[in-house]
Structure formats: C-alpha cells, structure tokens
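Ticket #4471: structure export looks truncated?
Reporter: QA, pipeline team
Priority: medium

Steps to reproduce: submit the single chain below to the structure queue and open the exported record.
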Amino acid sequence: MGIDWSHRLAVYTTQPRVDWTDARGFPVRALIVWDLNAGKLASSFEYSGKGVYPVGVALAGRDVFIATEKQVTFTRLDGTQPRPLLEAEGEAVVQDIAVSPDGGSVAVVVSGNDPSNLGELRVFDIGTLKESFRVRQGDGRFEGMRGHFSELHWRADGTGILVSTATHTEMWGSLATIFLDGRVRIEAVEGYGNVSPTGTMWAGNVGGVGCMFVGSHEWLIRGLDDGSVPVRGRSESLVFSPWEWSPDGTQFVFTQQEAPNCEDLSIDKQTAYVVRTQNGTSFGAPERVADLAELHRQWYGDRLFTTDCAHAIQPAVDRWGEPSLGCTGRAEPPDAPRTVRVGGQFAGMAILPQPVGVIAP
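Actual output as written to the record:
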C-alpha cells in the first residue's frame, strides 16, 4: 500500500475474486486508487497471470510498480501504458520492491533459483527503466550470511540499501548494507529485529527464547554506522520482543513481560514500552505505553493506515515501518471485507483471500 500525498491518493491491491477453470482457481487481483480528497474511487483495474501472489506496490509519482512473485510491471495509476520491468526466471521469486527516497530509482530483490546464487539485488533508473546496479548474494562479499535475500529497505540518505535474509526456519536471518558505490557491510545482528526508517539503526533481540524465537532475555539498539549500543535491556525473569520504530526514527516500541513461553507473548497496554531519543544517539529510560493506538495517531497523524478486521492483534504498520493491509488475526468469516482507513478517513474496502478448499459455484 502507498500514498501519493501531493494528490492524497491511497493505492493498494486486493483480491476481488478467483476465476475457476474446472477444479482449479486462479486469483485475480485489483489495484485500487482511492481519492482521499473526494472520498471516492479514482480508478481501479484488475490483473492476473503467473505468480500473481502480491509482493507489493511502490509509487513513483503518478506511476506505480506492481510486484508479484514472478514479475514487476511499471504502469500508470489507471492501468494504462504498462511496461515490464523484470521477470523472475525459473524457480526464482520476486521478494520485495521499494522506490528510493529521491524517487529516481527502484530496487528489487529476487531470490535465486540455484545454490550458487541465493538471490540478487537489482536497481533500476525510473526514468529509463534500465538497470543501474546489480549485486548477487553468491559473490564472496556475502559469505557467512544465512538464508537468501528477502526484504529490502533504502537508507534515508539514498546511499545504500539494507537487505535482510530469510532462512525458512525458526532461526533469524542476516542483514547487510549494500552501498551503491559497491561497498558491502555485513551487519552485526544477533536475533530478530527491526531496521530504523533512516536505515542507520537496528533494534532487536540477542538470541531468543520460545517457539520462533520471538522473544529473548536481552535486547538492544545498535548504530549500524558506528557500532554504538545506546540501549540495552537484560533480565533473566523477563522476556523482551522488538516491535516497531516511529516513522521519524526517534522512538522505538518493545514488549517487556513475564512470559515462560511464546504463547504468552502479547502487545498491549500492560506490556508495551517505548524509548525515545532527542539527539539521535542517546535514548531515555523506557516508558510504559498506555495506549498503543493513541501513540500511532501521534506518530502518523492523518497518515495513519488502519484496517477494521476481526481479532486484529498488530498495527497496520509492519516491522519495517511500511504501511500494510495485513491483519495477524483471522477475520470471521474468512472472506469478510475489511474497511481501509487513512487518518481515520474511509479509503475503500479490502477483501481477504478466498480460503483454500472453497469451490466456487
């Protein structure tokens, strides 16, 4: 999901239906453009095909990149003038996509299709749609990284891109900063964590406890450029879990609770804490968060993305600080629509994917 703030357009994808042929269903997705000023649908168009599972959309002015598992397409917001950017070959899969802070480039992560190439990062010039930079995980600079390239995050200064890896196990992956001048820096991460919006700090666990290692008895914030550790929490009787950064990177929310196993981990007014910095280098003591929703409203104001869905247990802003339509909790019934809101203003409806095993009439 994305917002063109200069024109107040909310852009997101949803799955309106499944087309059935014999006993097989083919998902059809739609790109929704909602005019927040007029309070109505500005445009929408459907797309389908191989690997249509949504990876994301990335706005570039009045144009948009639509990424599915197998391809990335550049098109106008009304669906006209579509141009292919890339197609993942063989068993390779598009993992993530993001436009640079200056709007001049788009970065794409593609996972590899053979053991010698676990993935690659490709950067394209938006004006020409020509590739300007590429690096493969298989080269020697990434030796020691676990898993394959997965998520990406631009540094706010545009000098480089952070790429995390996925292991497809309960273990956390690795993190590298890939600078556009060719330098590569493998970051020191010791558990699951979150990159700051600036791309210069990491907050996360040291080790892990419980299933999926979502918590630990120690957590910290580390400066990636200088290696500093301005925040560290440690307790054998408490379990900590990193949650999310504020959009300006000056606050970080984490959980702190007595939890003997992962089933007891939660985020609520009893367990949420925030640390704040005024100068970008040192942080104050943790403060309990009385109302997480109110904290989000303070952070985002009229830019807060929310969705109304049953049993939602996490905010609509994911751990990389990106707006997301995902709800952790399952809606009832499974295909129930969700209301999309931006800053409390209605911005259309999203439909949960049709559950596996449902046979359309």
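Status: closed, not a bug. The export was complete when the record was re-opened. Leaving a note from the reviewer for reference: Residues 238 and 258 are 5 Å apart (CA to CA).
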